[in-house]
Amino acid sequence: MTAHIWPQQDAVATIALGGSGGIDPGALAAASLVQLLVGIGVYVWLALALTAVFRKVGVAPWKAWVPVLNGWELFVLGGMRGWWAAVLTGGAILVAIVGTIVGGLFAGAAVTAGFGGDAASAAGALAAAAVVPALIWLAFLVFAVVVQVRLLRALCRGFGVGTAYVVLGVILFPVWASVIGWGSARWLGRPTEQASGPFGEGPTPGASTAAPVDTATRASSASSASSSSSASSGAFAPPTAFAAVPAAPADLAAADQPADPGPVTASPWAPPPPPAETVAEPVAPLPWTAPPASPAPASPAPAPAAPAPAPVAARSAPAGLEEDAQDVDERTVLAARRAPQASLRLPAGTSVVLTSDTAVLGRNPVATADAPDAQLIPVDDTTRTVSKTHALLRRTSEGWMISDLASTNGVFVGEDEAEVSGPTRVTGAFHLGDAELHLSEDG
């Protein structure tokens, strides 16, 4: 865009320095024509290469031939605002206009000084006419390179190529487009739906953390209910024992005796003497019969007292079995809760339990084509360095693997914060842009 400025400045320099015979107008015209043809050739080359790139990503190929629209589509494809293409194009036009005006002013001053005989002033003004526009262009080019690097990083991740391609794209963008479009590179993955609303911000749902809490609550409620039911069954066991005791003699003393045989069952030799003595005293049935045969029933009296410990022992056995059964049920419930479960701590401090083997992370994530059933985890990032669909977590036999979904600011794992270029093993802390997250697995 500045090619036409230099012949004009050369002409001004010749006039200012007092000469006109050193520049051939035909040579200037030929140089301008060559520059024009080279520019047209490079643009056709770039358009053909971008046509191949657009075919790979599902964009209409004809858009590669429209000057601003092709750049717009590339920015959208890289997850950035499409109007960056208009900003760069408009900025180049504005810089060209400003540079031409500034160069013309200094060139006019050089001509005036040259005709006035002040050669030193003419030389200074002439130098300023060349240097000041060049500095303006340099500042704009630095800005354009920064934007282009961000774009190329996202595009190279999407095509699964490394950092060397970013450098190639910055230096020789038509060559980069040719290698990507006509080479074996394959588009891996930013969904086209993500770029449909570049200014949209989705809500950050928190339902993913509520379900596990409810499950744990219900599990604890179930265990407490089972323990309370076992306690209630144990509480109702003694009345059955007491109900069997009144089947023995109706005397209160005989009813009190079964309470003692419980602990006495440990020593089977102790019961015989006490029942013989206690029964001999109350059983003296003087009102019933006067014959001395009353001592004879004293011998059968211990017989009914002896069976009393047997029912108590028999009743204690089922109670133990019921408690064992309840213990088995409780252990079954607890074993389900002890299963390993991974969780993700977000930058705001909240934790999300990973309920699926795949999860998509981002400010407003969308499921990818190779993981349509993935768990969507919005990342509440105040620095806005997290892309809308930034990374994919996948559980494998080796552990959790993370992949960069062509994000703008990249994914970094490990203590040395190595940038992810493909599926990488991740555990503990990692970064999405400047946002720090932490992956932990309990169990």
UniProtKB/TrEMBL annotation:
<keyword id="KW-0472">Membrane</keyword>
<feature type="transmembrane region" description="Helical">
    <location>
        <begin position="83"/>
        <end position="111"/>
    </location>
</feature>
<feature type="transmembrane region" description="Helical">
    <location>
        <begin position="159"/>
        <end position="182"/>
    </location>
</feature>
<feature type="region of interest" description="Disordered">
    <location>
        <begin position="193"/>
        <end position="232"/>
    </location>
</feature>
<protein>
    <submittedName>
        <fullName>FHA domain-containing protein</fullName>
    </submittedName>
</protein>
<feature type="compositionally biased region" description="Pro residues">
    <location>
        <begin position="284"/>
        <end position="310"/>
    </location>
</feature>
<keyword id="KW-0812">Transmembrane</keyword>
<keyword id="KW-0597">Phosphoprotein</keyword>
<feature type="compositionally biased region" description="Low complexity">
    <location>
        <begin position="252"/>
        <end position="268"/>
    </location>
</feature>
<feature type="transmembrane region" description="Helical">
    <location>
        <begin position="27"/>
        <end position="54"/>
    </location>
</feature>
<dbReference type="InterPro" id="IPR008984">
    <property type="entry name" value="SMAD_FHA_dom_sf"/>
</dbReference>
<dbReference type="InterPro" id="IPR000253">
    <property type="entry name" value="FHA_dom"/>
</dbReference>
<feature type="compositionally biased region" description="Low complexity">
    <location>
        <begin position="219"/>
        <end position="232"/>
    </location>
</feature>
<feature type="transmembrane region" description="Helical">
    <location>
        <begin position="123"/>
        <end position="147"/>
    </location>
</feature>
<feature type="region of interest" description="Disordered">
    <location>
        <begin position="252"/>
        <end position="326"/>
    </location>
</feature>
<dbReference type="Pfam" id="PF00498">
    <property type="entry name" value="FHA"/>
</dbReference>
<keyword id="KW-1133">Transmembrane helix</keyword>
<feature type="domain" description="FHA">
    <location>
        <begin position="359"/>
        <end position="418"/>
    </location>
</feature>
